Amino acid sequence: xxxxxxxxxxxxxxxxxxxxxxxxxxxxxxxxxxxxxxxxxxxxxxxxxxxxxxxxxxxxxxxxxxxxxxxxxxxxxxxxxxxxxxxxxxxxxxxxxxxxxxxxxxxxxxxxxxxxxxxxxxxxxxxxxxxxxxxxxxxx
Length: 140
Description:
This protein is an all-alpha fold. It has a single domain (3-128), classed as Growth Hormone, Chain: A (Up-down Bundle), CATH 1.20.1250. The protein contains five helices and no strands. The protein has helices spanning 3-36, 49-67, 78-95, 99-124, 126-135. Helix 1 (3-36) packs antiparallel against helix 4 (99-124) and helix 3 (78-95) runs antiparallel to helix 4 (99-124). The chain is elongated and about 65 Å long.
């Protein structure tokens, strides 16, 4: 084996591990987002509870799919769990499950799902993501 093929192998392994780590992050994020909506006090939610049920079914289906790609023993950083615990505590728990707190939770959920979609797109189309990073202005 020559030095060039060894370097290529190292790059491939490095990219594989990076993607695997990103998939774990996506899976754990979806799981933690799903957990936000497993709450006892959803009587004041400002939407149909059937929508919540459908959302949870779809989210759990994505989580199951990701579990076939990455080990269930591999977990994302504990900071991610702490973030979502703080989010539910600062919204639903602190306000007693008010309609406004659920609206805040919905906005945060949408923001995070949009960010996860960008991450998925960067995994599926790495050259386009690299191009976006090169074209985006950097502020220091």
